[in-house]
Design a protein that fits this description.
alpha/beta; Nucleotidyltransferase, domain 5; 2 domains; about 25% strand
C-alpha cells in the first residue's frame, strides 16, 4: 500500500492505494504555516481512525502545486510511513507525451490527472480540475497533451465580485431555485453556479471544434459536485482521478 498526497492551493487530499484501489481518502485544509510535525500529527491521527499504521505502507508519492509546502509534506510523510516520497516533477517517469511550449510549466496535478485519464479512457480527452482555479487539459487522439485553459474557480470569482462591489454580500456557492433570480442573493447564486456550468459547456464545444472530433470529458475537484449537475454536456465525474494517476506514476517509477 502507498500513501498518495495531492497538495492544492485550497486543500490537500490524501488517500491509501493498494493494487490501484483508492481508499481512506482524507481532505485537509492547505496551511502554508504548518510544520512537518503538525502535518504528520494530523495525518497520523486520521490514519489511525481508518486503522492504518506505519507498517501498512510500502511507499508514498506527492504531487504539489504549492512549492513552499512540498518539502514540508515530504518530511511529514516520511515521519508517518518511514519512506521517502516520490515527488512528481522533472525526471519522474509518467509516460505522458507533453506537447506544450515548456513542459516544465505543467503542474504536477495536471500530469497526474492526464495520466489517470489515459489509463482508463480512450482519447481524445478533455479533463476539468475544478478547485481554486478551473484547469482544462486537452489530450488528442494520439494521446498527446496539447495544452488547455485556466479559468477562475467559482469561489475565486465570487470573492472577486464581493470584494469589488460594496453592496454585494458574501454567499456560499449553491444553486438558486431558478436561473432568473428575483433578488440579489439568487441572482448571485445563478451567476456563480449556472454561469460556471455554461462556461464549461461552452469550452467543451469550442475545444471539440478545434480538435475536429468529439471527446470524452472528465471532471474532478472539490467544486465539481456543485457545478456538474447543471452542465448540459455529458461529463464523467471522477472524485479520485488525481490519486489514481499518482498510483500509475508510482508504479512506473518503483523498483521491481
Amino acid at each position: 500500500m502507498i500513501l498518495a498526497v495531492d497538495a492544492g492551493n485550497t486543500n490537500i487530499v490524501l488517500g491509501c492505494i493498494e493494487d490501484g484501489t483508492v481508499s481512506d481518502v482524507m481532505r485537509l485544509e492547505t496551511n502554508r504555516k504548518k510544520t512537518e510535525y503538525e502535518y504528520a500529527a494530523t495525518i497520523r491521527q486520521i490514519l489511525r481512525i481508518f486503522g492504518r499504521n506505519r507498517a501498512d505502507f510500502t511507499g508514498a508519492i506527492i504531487s504539489s502545486v504549492v512549492p513552499q509546502l512540498t518539502e514540508t509534506l515530504k518530511s511529514a510523510v516520511a515521519l508517518i510511513t518511514g519512506h521517502d516520497a516520490l515527488i512528481v516533477g522533472a525526471g519522474v517517469k509518467t509516460g505522458l507525451n507533453i506537447r506544450i511550449d515548456d513542459p516544465s510549466q505543467l503542474g504536477a496535478d495536471l500530469v497526474a490527472a492526464a495520466v489517470s485519464g489515459l489509463s482508463m479512457h480512450k482519447p481524445p480527452l478533455i479533463i476539468f480540475d475544478m478547485g481554486t482555479a478551473v484547469t482544462i487539459s486537452v489530450i488528442d487522439t494520439d494521446s498527446r497533451l496539447l495544452g488547455g485553459a485556466i479559468m477562475p474557480g467559482p469561489t475565486v470569482a465570487m470573492e472577486a465580485l464581493t470584494s469589488s462591489v460594496s453592496l454585494l454580500p458574501h454567499i456560499p456557492i449553491e444553486p438558486p431555485r431558478k436561473i432568473i433570480g428575483t433578488n440579489t442573493i439568487d441572482c448571485m447564486k445563478s451567476g456563480a453556479v449556472f454561469g460556471a456550468a455554461a462556461s464549461i459547456d461552452g469550452m467543451i464545444d469550442r475545444i471539440e471544434e478545434e480538435l475536429g472530433s468529439p471527446a470524452t470529458v472528465i471532471a474532478t475537484g472539490g467544486l465539481a459536485r456543485k457545478i456538474l449537475p447543471f452542465c448540459q454536456r455529458d461529463i464523467i465525474f471522477d472524485e479520485n482521478l488525481l490519486l489514481r494517476g499518482l498510483w500509475v506514476i508510482w508504479q512506473k517509477n518503483s523498483k521491481k
